[in-house]
Amino acid sequence: MFFKRDKNKNTNDRPGLIVMNRPSSVISEQFRTIRTNIQYSMIDEELKTIVVTSAGPSSGKSTVSANLAAIFASEDKRVLLVDADLRKPTVHKTFNTRNNIGMTTLLTDRSLTLEDSIARTQVEGLYLLTSGAIPPNPAELLASKRINEIIEIMQQQFDMIIFDMPPVLAVTDAQIMASKVDGVLFVIPKGEVKKDHVIKSKELLDNVQAKLLGAVMNKVEKTEENYYYYYGN
Length: 233
Ligand SMILES: Nc1ncnc2c1ncn2[C@@H]1O[C@H](COP(=O)(O)OP(=O)(O)OP(=O)(O)O)[C@@H](O)[C@H]1O
Ligand SMILES: [Mg+2]
Description:
Layout: E1 2-4, H1 18-21, H2 26-41, E2 49-54, H3 61-73, E3 79-83, H4 91-94, H5 103-108, H6 114-117, E4 119-120, E5 126-129, H7 138-142, H8 145-157, E6 160-164, H9 173-178, E7 183-189, H10 195-207, E8 212-220
Parallel strand pairs: 1-8, 2-6, 2-7, 3-5, 3-6, 7-8
Antiparallel strand pairs: 4-5
Helix pairs in contact: 2-3
Magnesium ion is lined by residues 61-62, 85, 88, 90, 164.
C-alpha cells in the first residue's frame, strides 16, 4: 500500500483529514485501496481491532490512523479511533476536540463508561476516544486488566476500532497493544527509516505474536507511486 507525499498542504501545513477534505483526491483513492487490502488480508478471521504503528517517530501513524478511520466510517461502519499514543497524543488536535476525558480517564476512573468518554465527529459513524491527560505510566495502563475489559466493550459497540500508537522501537506501548488486537498496520516513511529498524520492529512485533496485516509506504513522491506499491508481510 502506498500513501503519497501530500503537496497540496492545507492551512495548518498537515495533510490532516484528507479523505474528508478532498474525497476525490488521489490520496483518498489510495486510502480506499488500503481499506480494501486490509479487508482482504484477513478474510477468514475477524478483523475488528487494528493497531497502527511504525519503527520511529513522525512516520505518519496518526495521519494514517485518522484517514483510515474516516474511510472505514464512510463505508457505513461504526468506527472508533482511539488515541493510544499516551505520550504524544494528536487525535484531539486533528479533530479539534476536547481532551479532558479520554483513554487515560477511562482506564483510571471506574465510574466512567466508554459512552461517557467518546466524542462524536463531523463524519457520520466516526467516533473518537482521545488520549485524556498524559499519564506518568502509559505502558502500565496499556498492560492493565482494565484495558482488556474496555477493548471487549469497544468490540460490542463498534465494527472497527483503530488504535493510534507510539513507535515500536522507542517504547513497549505498541507491542503491548499489538498483542491484544486482531491486526497491526505498519507505516514506513519512504527514505526516512533504516532497513534494520524496520527488521527490528518486525522482530519485536513477532515476539508478541502480533498479526502483521501489512505496511503502508508513506510520503511517496507522486512519480514513484508505481514503483513503491507495497503490501503484505
Ligand atoms: N503523506 C504525507 N505527506 C506530507 N506530510 C505528511 C504525510 N504523512 C504525514 N505527514 C506529516 O508528517 C508529520 C508527522 O505525521 P504524523 O503526526 O501523522 O506522524 P506520527 O507517526 O503519528 O508521529 P509521532 O511519532 O509524533 O506520533 C505531520 O506533520 C504530518 O502532517
Ligand atoms: Mg502520532
